[in-house]
């Protein structure tokens, strides 16, 4: 019997096809499960016309807080997975939001860009700063679910923390705020004056040593926080690695410290962290209360964004 060239190629290809099929099946069998948040998907509507996607898990007890969780630029609500699952175990509620232009929140009002990648900051109009409307929509939705306004706390990463801080500064009913990788001007959302206006409430700042920008700016914000909120209300945590919500994965030891702070926010956890552990000292700039304002700091930092 004479084998054609096609027969020989087919005989050679058969084992390869079987090997590929086996590898594909093995990969499917060992694939990691999707890191979806517990809770129910909800839809939020902002006053300026955005439709937002979020995930809601109610608190198990009436005296537990519910946190609105706000990811960093380029993120999505699933970024909170590592902290959210611990919140769920503790009975702490959360509403994790896909900020406008991120994740599944791409239903923009007519005439606006639907993706954060196309957001443009123009004089007098910063779409990132307008994300405070996303928090307003989230808080309004929670209030409709019967959550008392004084039980709605905020947690944010990077620029999500910036807008959380600015919202809390204007809304004194917010009971507490935590910030991962805080900064003074992410996406030109300025936070110094907001920190100065944040009064007499617990606030936590967490930063990683390898996050050069935040490690430089956090000590400055920390000084403002101590003067505005009071030293007993101000907690600073130092992680080894990770920017924004990535800190929750790369430095998972930070999670129990955040949980401890939620349970006891006024008495700071005894973890041996101070502003001395971070690089960057606040330059001496004269002002009426001894601390510089947003404009002064822009000059000090060379207008960095």
Written overview of the protein:
This protein is of the alpha/beta class and 305 residues long. The chain has 2 domains: 1-31; 37-300, Alpha/Beta hydrolase fold, catalytic domain (Rossmann fold). 35% of the residues lie in helices and 15% in strands. It contains 9 helices and 8 strands. The chain has helices spanning 5-30, 81-90, 132-144, 159-170, 192-197, 212-229, 246-250, 254-263, 294-300; strands spanning 40-45, 51-57, 66-70, 93-97, 152-157, 177-180, 203-208, 234-239. The protein has an 8-stranded mixed β-sheet, with helices on both faces. Strand 6, helix 5 and strand 7 form a beta-alpha-beta unit. The longest helix has 26 residues, at 5-30. The N and C termini lie far apart (75 Å). The relative contact order is 0.11.
**Count of helical regions:** 9
Instruction: List unreliable stretches of 5+ residues.
Output: 12-33, 272-291, 297-305
Determine the CATH superfamily of the largest domain.
Answer: Alpha/Beta hydrolase fold, catalytic domain
What is the average of the pLDDT values?
A: 84
Cα shape: globular
Largest sheet: 8 strands, mixed
Percentage beta strand: 5-15%
Order of helices and strands: HEEEHEHEHEHEHEHHH
Radius of gyration: 23 Å
């Amino acid at each position: 019997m004479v084998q054609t060239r096609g027969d020989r190629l087919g005989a050679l290809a058969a084992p390869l096809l079987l090997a590929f099929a086996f590898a594909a099946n093995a990969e499917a069998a060992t694939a990691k499960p999707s890191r979806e948040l517990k809770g129910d998907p909800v839809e939020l509507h902002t006053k300026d016309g955005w439709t937002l996607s979020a995930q809601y898990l109610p608190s198990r007890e009436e005296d537990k807080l519910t946190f609105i969780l706000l990811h960093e630029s380029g993120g999505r609500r699933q970024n909170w997975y590592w902290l959210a699952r611990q919140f769920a175990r503790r009975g702490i509620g959360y509403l994790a939001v896909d900020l406008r232009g991120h994740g599944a929140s791409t239903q923009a009002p007519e005439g606006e860009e639907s993706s954060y990648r196309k957001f443009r900051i123009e004089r007098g109009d910063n779409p990132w700063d307008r994300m405070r409307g996303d928090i307003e929509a989230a808080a309004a939705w929670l209030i409709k679910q019967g959550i008392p306004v004084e039980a709605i706390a905020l947690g944010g990463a990077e620029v999500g923390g910036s807008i959380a801080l600015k919202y809390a500064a204007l809304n004194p009913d917010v009971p507490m705020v935590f910030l991962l990788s805080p900064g003074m001007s992410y996406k030109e959302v300025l936070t110094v004056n907001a920190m100065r206006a944040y009064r007499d409430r617990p606030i936590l700042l967490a930063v990683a040593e390898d996050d050069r920008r935040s490690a430089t700016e956090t000590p400055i914000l920390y000084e403002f926080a101590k003067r505005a909120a009071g030293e007993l209300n101000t907690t600073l945590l130092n992680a080894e690695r990770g920017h924004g919500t990535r800190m929750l994965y790369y430095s998972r030891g930070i999670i129990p410290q955040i949980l401890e702070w939620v349970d006891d926010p006024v008495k700071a956890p005894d973890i041996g962290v101070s502003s001395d552990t971070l690089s960057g000292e606040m330059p001496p700039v004269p002002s009426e209360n001894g601390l510089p304002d947003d404009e002064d700091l822009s000059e000090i930092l060379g207008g960095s964004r």
